[in-house]
Design brief:
- The protein is elongated, with a radius of gyration of 23 Å.
- The protein contains five helices and 14 strands.
- The relative contact order is 0.17.
- It is α/β, with parallel strands linked by helices.
- Strands 5-2-6-7-1-8 form a six-stranded parallel β-sheet, sandwiched between helices.
- Strand 6, helix 3 and strand 7 form a beta-alpha-beta unit.
Length: 224
């Protein structure tokens, strides 16, 4: 890809975001774009959070085993500290694992006239916006929201269903812990649902089905 120039003749940088649920091909798309940049003889650097050790420490790896050499970092600011002056394209994988500092880092790089390509989960396993991704999506010049295939019905999947009992927001894993689900088949936080009782029992005879009532809120008296 050639370098765009603004009306003052200066190189114009921009931010691209590739997002979607697990198994939607985000890293694969990131690698594809980085390889095209290399074919165009542009210097490319790729960074990822050091916490992501699922496949390889110094590579980003897609679920279909495509690889690209990268630099693992613990802080978003390290990208600015470690970038080579001749770099034209910066790739960032698993951006949802960084804190909000990654947003300003991407802005600074783009303002220097460089191309920034960010890949990450837009939602966590609870279906909520994940980390700095909403801000990155708002600031990006280009957005690609990918979909996976629902493992339950075969439709388009936009959710990441966690199957394991962890309740922490970050729980690294692949097919042994997660499935892609569509909105209809998505079941939310399964671990939390198991902890919540479905019924409350009243009366002394627990075997009496008439005494088993759905769990509801106690009505409050009206106040004048």
């Amino acid at each position: 890809m050639h370098v765009h120039h603004g009306h003052h003749g200066k190189p114009t940088g921009w931010i691209e975001v590739v997002c979607g649920p697990m198994f939607s091909g985000k890293t694969e798309e990131l690698i594809r774009r980085l390889r095209l940049a290399r074919i165009a003889r542009q210097r490319v650097e790729i960074f990822k959070p050091a916490v992501d050790t699922r496949y390889a420490q110094r590579h980003i790896v897609s679920h279909n085993d495509q690889k690209f050499t990268c630099t693992p970092i613990t802080r978003a600011e390290q990208i600015l500290e470690m970038m080579d002056d001749s770099t034209r394209v910066v790739g960032i994988d698993e951006a949802q694992f960084f804190d909000d500092a990654i947003v300003q880092v991407c802005e600074k790089i783009a303002n220097r006239g460089l191309r920034v390509i960010v890949a990450g989960l837009d939602q966590d396993y609870r279906g909520e916006p994940f980390g700095p991704m909403p801000q990155l999506l708002a600031l990006a010049e280009s957005i690609l929201k990918l979909k996976a295939v629902c493992t339950t019905c075969g439709g388009w999947a936009s959710k990441s269903q966690r199957l394991s009992p962890e309740t922490t927001r970050v729980a690294l894993g692949a097919t042994e812990k997660y499935e892609a689900r569509c909105r209809a088949c998505y079941e939310g936080d399964l671990a939390a649902q198991k902890e919540e009782p479905l019924f409350t029992v009243v009366g002394e005879d627990h075997a009496d089905r008439d005494n088993v009532l759905p769990l509801t809120k106690t009505p409050q008296p009206d106040t004048p």
